[in-house]
Amino acid sequence: MSLSRNSLRYLLSFRSAASPGRNLASTIECIALLPYSSAFSRTSPKIQPFFTTSLQKNAARTFASSADIPEQSGSGREMQIRFVRIVAFGMILVAATKIVPLMSQSTVPHAIQLCQASEPIMQKSAAHRVNKLAETDDTLQELIAAGVCPKLLGMLKPHVDPRVATAVLSAVKEISRLPEGREALKSAGAPAVLDKSVQQQWLTTQQDIEEASKISRWLMTRS
């Protein structure tokens, strides 16, 4: 199958307002047939992109004029989007009020179990989870009662992954905000572990070294 040079000129200017749907189909068909055109194949490679680009622009203009459903006004569409967002947010909020308390109860034991993992990625996840759970006073009390402090400090050891060390220090700091947390950390030997991690260079970043020293002093000076 081949298209003549006159056909190519016709295609480049083809845009009938009377039958936009047929115009769209015809233009798309022409784009598909263009590589098989004898005139196209004899055209300079520098000119060939011009034909393709022109037909693609024609197709885009035709598509815009061939929509069967009229475009809604900006204000009407915006109201619909707002309504959908409000409904979706309400459903999420209702579900959260029912699920979050259950999640809080079930994630404390899970966080304790994760603290005993040997893989750095699991240890980091455990420390992050403890840090998040400790932001709530009641959940922090559950963590302390479950013995989270010695397990958390147990992840600070020689050759500890720097990302794990940073996460552990952040969780220890969060636990130390309550008197019960500071007491539990001191009972688990947190000041000695933190000082040892600095002195024996378990911590490799300056930020972690400064944070560990700061938490250790905080625990020793606060009751």
Report what the structure shows.
Mean pLDDT is 74; it is low at 1-44, 62-71 and 101-105. The longest helix is centred in the middle third of the chain and has 41 residues, at 74-114. The protein contains 12 helices and no strands. It has helices at 5-12, 20-33, 38-41, 48-65, 74-114, 120-133, 137-145, 148-153, 162-175, 179-187, 190-199, 206-221. The protein is mainly alpha-helical. It is elongated and about 65 Å long.
Radius of gyration, whole Å: 34 Å
Major sheet attributes: none
Global shape: elongated
The tally of beta strands, per DSSP, is 0
Measured between the Cα atoms of the first and last residue, the distance is 90 Å
Percent of residues in helices comes to over 70%
- Can you give the mean pLDDT? 74
Secondary-structure element order, N to C: HHHHHHHHHHHH
Low-confidence sequence ranges: 1-44, 62-71, 101-105
Question: Number of helical segments?
Answer: 12
Which terms summarize this structure?
single chain, 223 residues, mainly alpha, 0% strand, disordered N terminus
Brief digest:
The protein has helices at about 5-10, 20-35, 40, 50-65, 75-115, 120-135, 135-145, 150-155, 160-175, 180-185, 190-200, 205-220. The protein is mainly alpha-helical.
Layout of helices and strands:
Elements: H1 5-12, H2 20-33, H3 38-41, H4 48-65, H5 74-114, H6 120-133, H7 137-145, H8 148-153, H9 162-175, H10 179-187, H11 190-199, H12 206-221
